[in-house]
Backbone:
């Protein structure tokens, strides 16, 4: 393979990049070219004020065979810097490298010596966050680091629960705890029987998309922790992410309206027959109607009726996810230290 270092995000590779992603061992929405391009624009919503793009591409016979979407960032005072995956750490639930199954090990075997000798600022650690525990990259990366004689370790970072869907709403309800099943039905029925005007919908009109995005951010900000998270730079990152997903046809921005007001919202990505649930917000003025639960119930019914295979809650071990039948899995961090 022939390797190339890109110190600016390679905008001209969008088509090849996404074509490779579609055949890669890790096909994730956070690895799409347009998403990572937006992430670089905002430096991860301000998480990384100092970074240098260090994307490495590999070709074989002219064909793109691998992408390591990396960046360099300074280390602790007096220590060399780190190489990390674009998208790290806070705003991209799942990350990885791009390579087809047959190319993954050769790509990583060649990547590490290339990184050692290419023209980058000093670095001592290759620090890969947010890989799914079942990613083929983990054993391949360990093998490549062993070849180099580097130290390698992994760290379990967070729960990342998901719900495998049967494709039928009643079958799904029958698969979860009886008490929880009763609670979902009771809360959805209570709003239905209250006589209060209500509806839920998925934002689809480009003419009012910006208004919908701002409404969602407003609902998020009603939670004090999320309000602190939504700095101006992070708000810009969220806006770019939602617009980008809309343009690619995978934005799933759902609102529950009660009495004409937006009571709850879920931001997800409808991608690869999976609903990737990214964030949420609610208006506490409507808490008597349990708007978060009601909207989540409607989303799960919608997903089952459309035979979506998986409802991915992504990172976080909040109790409500397990009440809705989520199964645990984890994201991990893989670290290689140069000797």
Residues:
């Amino acid at each position: 393979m022939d390797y190339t270092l890109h110190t600016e995000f390679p905008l001209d590779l969008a088509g090849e990049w996404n074509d490779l992603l579609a055949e890669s061992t890790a096909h994730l929405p956070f690895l799409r070219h347009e998403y990572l391009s937006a992430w670089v624009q905002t430096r991860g919503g301000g998480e990384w004020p100092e970074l240098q793009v260090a994307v490495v591409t590999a070709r074989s016979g002219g064909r793109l065979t691998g992408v390591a979407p990396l960046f360099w960032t300074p280390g602790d005072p007096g220590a060399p810097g780190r190489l990390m995956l674009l998208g790290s750490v806070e705003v991209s639930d799942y990350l990885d490298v791009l390579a087809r199954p047959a190319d993954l090990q050769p790509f990583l075997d060649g990547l590490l010596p290339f990184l050692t000798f290419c023209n980058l600022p000093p670095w001592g650690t290759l620090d890969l966050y947010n890989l799914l525990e079942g990613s083929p990259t983990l054993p391949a990366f360990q093998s490549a680091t062993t070849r180099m004689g580097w130290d390698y370790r992994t760290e379990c970072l967070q729960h990342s629960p998901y719900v495998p869907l049967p494709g039928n709403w009643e079958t799904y309800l029958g698969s979860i705890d009886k008490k929880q099943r009763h609670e979902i039905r009771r809360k959805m029925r209570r709003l239905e029987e209250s006589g209060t005007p209500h509806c839920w919908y998925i934002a689809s009109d480009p003419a009012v998309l910006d208004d919908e995005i701002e409404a969602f951010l407003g609902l998020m900000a009603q939670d004090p922790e999320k309000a602190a998270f939504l700095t101006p730079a992070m708000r810009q990152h969220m806006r770019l992410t939602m617009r980008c997903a809309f343009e690619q046809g995978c934005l799933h921005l759902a609102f529950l309206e009660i009495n004409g007001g937006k009571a709850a919202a879920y931001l997800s990505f409808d991608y690869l027959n999976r609903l990737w649930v990214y964030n949420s917000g609610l208006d506490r003025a409507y808490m008597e109607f349990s708007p978060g639960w009601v909207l989540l119930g409607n989303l799960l019914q919608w997903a089952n009726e459309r035979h979506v295979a998986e409802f991915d809650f992504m990172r976080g071990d909040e109790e409500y996810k397990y009440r809705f039948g989520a199964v645990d899995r984890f994201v991990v961090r893989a670290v290689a230290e140069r000797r």
